[in-house]
Amino acid sequence: MKISYKQIIILIFIAILIFMYQFIFIPGKKKLNSLREEVIRKSDEYKLLKSLCKDYQMKMSQNSVQIKFAEENFSLISFLGKMGLKENIKEVKPLLEEKKDNLVFCRVKISIENITLEKLIGFLQKVESENFIYIPTFQMKRNKDKPFLLNTEMELLVIKSNIQQN
Question: For 57-81, how does the pLDDT look when each residue is reduced to its tens digit (9 = 90+)?
Answer without folding.
Answer: 887 777 655 677 777 778 888 888 8
